[in-house]
Amino acid sequence: MKKRVALLVLALLVLTVTYIFRHEPGNSAAIRSVESGAPFIEATAAEDSVPRPGVDEEFVVSPECPDYSGPDDPRKTYGDVKNELESAIVSLQGSGSPMHWLAASILLADTESELALQMLQNLARTEATSSVATWRMLILCDQRRIAACNSPSIEELAIKADADNGMMWAQVAGRRFAVGRDEEAIEAMRRAIAARRFDTYFAEQMQALERGFAAVTGWTYPERIIYGSDSIASNPSNLVAIHEYCRRTNSTEGIELCDELGERIYVEGGETSARLIGIEMRQAVLESRADDNQLAALDQDYLDLKALQSALFEDVGALNLLLNDEQVMRDFISTIDAHGEVEAALLLQERTDRLRATPGYDQCNFASNPYINMDGP
Q1: Which among 20, 174, 257, 284 could disulfide-bond with 241, CB atoms 3.0 to 4.6 Å apart, if both were Cys?
Q2: How wide is the angle at C-alpha 299 spanned by C-alphas 296 and 305, nearest 5°?
Q3: Nearest 5 degrees, angle CA 55-CA 59-CA 63?
Q4: CA torsion angle for 271, 340, 140, 247 (degrees, to 10)?
Q5: Is 94 exposed, middle or buried (0-12, 13-18, 19+ CB in 10 A)?
Q6: DSSP string for residues in 207-247
Q7: b/e for 210-222, b at 16 or more Cβ within 10 A?
Q8: How far apart are CA 149 and CA 112, in angstroms?
Q9: pLDDT by residue (tens digit) across 216-252?
């Protein structure tokens, strides 16, 4: 089944995710998405319950809703979550389950990159985890300077694990362009274009983390999602290396390959940031052809996608609903997997509006996030 990736959505999934993992203590609770060009959402604990004109002006928070504004705020702080994550990683590493080791390697990628790479190399040879492990290896080696990443076996493992995946081949192509292996990179582009599907394994990564956390923590389902989401919010950034090739090539074959691969990534790439790079590949081609009419149409597609990206999740109450209602979160993740982040965001807003108007539904679910003290240390 084809998976639709939604890393932009995961970066915006809750108002607290980027704050927890990206903020510096002492800063305001303003949150910027880790995605370039994503919307700037400002929210503080005190603002959570403020009705927004045009969105929830009929919504009035009951005085019976939890009050998190005082000094005795019972919610977790950044330090609490960090400590619990570290404990969870130790437990996952001590498990005998390859899926738990996969979860641990994803969580260790930023802090202990060489250890994470060793674990991923071992997991890449295990059938049950090979595709996701090799994908994570390519991502990690693109983001970190690790000597072991220079081994040809990295590409060999990726190709063996999932040669039907265009995104895997695109990562290999970008890796080759980055070190000047242009002819081999061009061959990988051909294989990407011919591939049956484009997949960045969102569902598999999220499932590994969620099930791992379920086994070693007492976190709720929404907590398992939000505490794991930042760890898989890693763009297939080797697409940038392909884009650079598309900007400089003047060969007929290179131009055609960039156009075809850019089109497939735009249509099937899943995450918005990847789809934007797909458009940029095609823009580079049309600029070289001086095709002003098609370029204008493509420029409009780019602007439309950026505008849609910026419009997602303007309703703070919808984000709080994800945290407070487990079924809403589960349905949201399922929609991301099946249809992508745009459809998931639109359906979430529809559901938010419907539940706001549903008699008897707990309106406190829209009022504030129940898990994170955004002003805590």
Answers
A1: 174
A2: 145
A3: 145
A4: -20
A5: exposed
A6: HHHHHHHHHH----HHHHHHHHHHHH----TTHHHHHHHHH
A7: bebbeebbebbeb
A8: 15
A9: 999 999 999 988 887 776 555 577 888 889 888 889 8
